[in-house]
Amino acid sequence: MARVLVLGGTSYVAQFVLQQVLQDDALRVASGGQMEDVSAVACTIRSEPFSPLPAGFVTTWSEPAARVVGVYWQVDISDLEALDNCIQDFHPTVVINCTAISSPAVCQKDPDKACSVNEPRGLVTLLEKLPWRIRFVHFSTDFVYEGTQAWGESYKEEAAVLSSKLSVYGATKLRFDQFLLSLRSASLDVLILRIANVVGPVAPVFPDTSAPKFMQWLHCQLFQSETAEEPLKLWSDEFRSYLYIHDLVSVLFKLLAIEDNASATLVNLGGVEALSRVELAHRYLAVCGTHNASAVAAITREIVPTAFSGHQRIKC
Prior knowledge:
Number of helices: 10
CATH architecture of the largest domain: 3-Layer(aba) Sandwich
Mean pLDDT: 90
Shape: globular
Order of helices and strands: EHEEEEHEHHHEHEEHEEHEEHHEE
InterPro entries: Epimerase_deHydtase, NAD(P)-bd_dom_sf
Number of domains: 2
Domain NAD-dependent epimerase/dehydratase: 4-270
CATH class of the largest domain: Alpha Beta
Largest sheet: 9 strands, mixed
Protein name: NAD-dependent epimerase/dehydratase domain-containing protein
Number of strands: 15
CATH topology of the largest domain: Rossmann fold
Radius of gyration: 20 Å
Strand content: 15-25%
Structural class: alpha/beta
Pfam families: Epimerase (PF01370)
CATH superfamily of the largest domain: NAD(P)-binding Rossmann-like Domain
């Protein structure tokens, strides 16, 4: 039976992964030539314990229920002792690492911290020493590409190269990608998902105290009357691939249901086209108009295209 451990349980992507596990009893994971039901789920949270926990979540060592997520408190990705205690106690067969410093600006200000979180080599060492086999999922990013590809051309996985053109964030993620791809482990099956800019609804499980995701910020900027008279400046010359969060989670579990004999698999995951933030805003308004035409018609705030300091055209 599969035992799934999600590291960084309060992160945006992790919350949707955990929600899917709680809601879908039919999830299966391929392992050892057979399909296994998910029998247990847990996540790590870096903070001290808080309450109340969301429905379906319990502190570890509590009385077990039908399908719950066990929570391991105060487990930081850089605290190897806490990680090891968690892993030894839960005995996972699938580890999904959602922990990251994903803000390029924060990474730029503190490269050492970005390296310690985004390149968790100590975690891999712990997993390699286990006497049972682990499927390890790591989320990378499209920031590993320089963003200078000709318009209309997509990036292939092998196109990522360490260079001075990469941000600190992109460089840390790429170095760890390369580290994972170089592994020759008898006990570790690695799946690396290089994901585009993830968009979607508000995080469903834990309250989000971090900066709002772009779509939530955009919605507030467009629909809040307090800002109606001010022009909304959005970049028109940086183009990104956007990936819907539920599509990402669906692809993740479809890949986990496939038996892969390779020691490491790397996959680009992006949207169907590259869009600027101006284009994304207009697409969002068009979709909102199909559900609430009067609310969209009442918007008076002007969207003003503005230039980004560095041109990037990224499409996975």
